[in-house]
Design goal:
The complex is a heterodimer of chains A (205) and B (258).
Chain A (H helix, E strand, L loop, with lengths): L1 E6 L2 H12 L15 E4 L4 E6 L4 H6 L5 E5 H7 L3 E6 L5 E8 L10 E5 L2 H9 L5 E5 L6 H5 L4 E6 L3 H5 L2 E10 L1 E6 H6 L1 H14 L1
Parallel strand pairs in A: 1-3, 1-4, 7-8, 7-9
Antiparallel strand pairs in A: 2-3, 4-11, 5-11, 6-9, 6-10
Chain B lengths: L7 H15 L3 E2 L5 E3 L16 E4 L5 E4 L4 H7 L4 E10 L8 E10 L5 H19 L4 E7 H7 L5 H9 L3 H6 L4 H9 L14 E3 L10 E10 L7 E8 L2 E9 L10
Parallel strand pairs in B: 1-5, 7-8
Antiparallel strand pairs in B: 2-4, 3-4, 5-6, 6-11, 7-9, 9-10, 10-11
Classes of the chains: A alpha/beta (205), B alpha+beta (258).
């Protein structure tokens, strides 16, 4: 049995679309109910919805053999997993943004609001800039508008939310998309099946 | 037969010690503490850079050992040793120290072809001894070769991609075709080092730090255990060369003993 962790939400729907096009379908998964676990005995596969941030945890700990996780979460958590494939869905950017016309005052510690403290720390450490991380969960655009932070480090898809709030991208940190990840030990013993899944996903992605 | 007195970890440790002793390795027991300064400048060698320190009654800053290899290299004369020790580390994504049980060997004589073969054989035998009959794999890679194939720039990022089999990331970083082929296809393990050990495969993701490991490195896996059970390799440290490995007994919790 191959166990697959999929991220709940929009990204998960896109990833499941790929699996489904590749011939890996699970009955009832698109019905919108509250079920979390779906089994296809014929394929010898079981998949389950988990919170996007938790996908690497399930895979690293071996509860799932493979999973689909956003590159942002992989960068933030650095899990001990294999990153086997760029699934090329959920494309967006990790970026630094601030209010239009913002200029960095190098005489002060930079206040950075983010859901990704490790990514922000690593990015600013590379240039030796000292920062004060302000951890927030959602609606980050508010932070620089209300003066809680100087900038934000966040995911930017189209940039519409930034524009509507008088913010702009200052720098791009990384390009993001969903990645197929695998538990290292599972890859040793179920490698042939995992590589077959990769081949079929490659054809449809 | 289930042993009702010993824990699975203790049973595994006794079995392993029996194997190492049967190959003529000597049991090496070390102090649990080292002077803190001993680890300064050696952080690259250590898996976890945090060190549990305390002040001894004479005012000296001491550390609870985070690693076994460094102590063996420092204190023991050249030889073939096995150990069964605790180390103190902060696991990844954790904010507190943990006591971790390790049983393994250190080969600090000149590492010849035959010596390397012996170390690999012992690693495979160790895997079988704790596997409870399940399938095992020993991934082997040549850290020296990988290091030579890596460009001078962006080495940490490239190493991260190698360890995670991230081929698309390696391409983005401009890795050479030779390195891409080695990471994606692997290759034959040279000079009959393991011709009679089917469990051994070449896999670049076995590589860890390139600062000290400069020869063959390896990681051992057991079906059903989500992380590597064995980690080791050939190292070169302050002019001293050696080879060794550790079996992480805590990874076996609840999964062996019969």
């Amino acid at each position: 049995m191959i166990n697959i962790a999929l991220p709940k939400g929009r990204l998960g729907d896109k990833v499941y679309g790929l699996f489904s096009s590749a011939g890996y379908e699970f009955s009832g998964i698109s019905d919108g109910g509250r079920r979390l676990v779906f089994v296809n005995e014929e394929l010898g596969m079981r998949c389950f919805w988990v919170k996007p941030f938790d996908v690497p945890v399930y895979v690293e700990r071996g509860t799932a053999d493979i999973g689909a996780a956003g590159k942002d979460i992989l960068m933030e958590r650095s899990p001990e997993v294999y990153e086997l494939m760029d699934l090329k869905v959920g494309k967006c950017r990790m970026a630094v943004a601030g209010v239009n016309g913002y200029e960095d005052d190098m005489s002060r510690v930079l206040r950075v609001a983010t859901e990704f403290p490790n990514i922000a720390q690593e990015y600013y450490a590379a240039s030796g800039r000292e920062i004060d991380v302000i951890p927030l969960r959602g609606s980050l655009e508010l932070a620089p508008i209300l003066g809680l932070s100087d900038v934000i480090v966040d995911i930017v898809e189209t940039g519409t939310t930034l524009r509507e709030n008088n913010l702009c991208v200052i720098d791009e940190i990384a390009s993001l998309s969903a990645r197929l990840i695998a538990n290292k030990s599972a890859y040793k013993f179920k490698g042939e099946r995992i590589r077959e899944i990769m081949r079929r996903l490659e054809e449809v992605s | 037969m289930t042993n009702t007195i010993l824990t699975p970890e203790e049973t595994a440790s006794l079995n392993l010690r029996g194997i190492y002793a049967s190959y003529g390795y000597k049991f090496y027991r070390m102090r649990r503490f080292e002077e803190y300064d001993f680890y300064a400048g050696k952080k690259d060698f250590l898996i976890s850079s945090a060190i549990l320190a305390f002040t001894d009654l004479n005012g000296k800053l001491m550390a609870l050992r985070p690693d076994v290899t460094l102590s063996v290299i420092k204190h023991a004369p050249e030889g073939r040793y096995f150990y069964d020790e605790k180390v103190y580390r902060v696991p990844k994504n954790s904010s507190s120290f943990r006591e971790i049980s390790q049983c393994g060997i250190e080969y600090t004589l000149p590492v010849t072809h035959e010596a390397l073969k012996e170390v690999l054989r012992l690693a495979v035998e160790s895997l079988h001894a704790v596997s409870g009959g399940r399938r095992c794999v020993l991934d082997v890679a040549d850290a020296g070769e990988i290091s030579r194939l890596m460009p001078d720039e962006k080495r940490p990022e490239i190493l991260r991609c190698i360890v995670s089999k991230n081929i698309h990331g390696l391409k983005e970083l401009g890795a050479s075709q030779e390195l891409l082929d080695l990471v994606s296809e692997g290759r034959e393990i040279p000079e009959g080092l393991c011709s009679d050990m089917a469990e051994i495969r070449y896999d670049c993701s076995a590589v860890t730090s390139l600062s000290y490991y400069d020869g063959l490195v390896f990681k051992g896996y057991i079906d059903g255990i989500p992380e590597a059970v064995i980690s080791g390799g050939q190292y070169s440290f302050e002019g001293k060369k050696g080879a060794g490995f550790a079996v992480y007994l805590d990874t076996l919790e609840g999964s062996c003993g019969d």
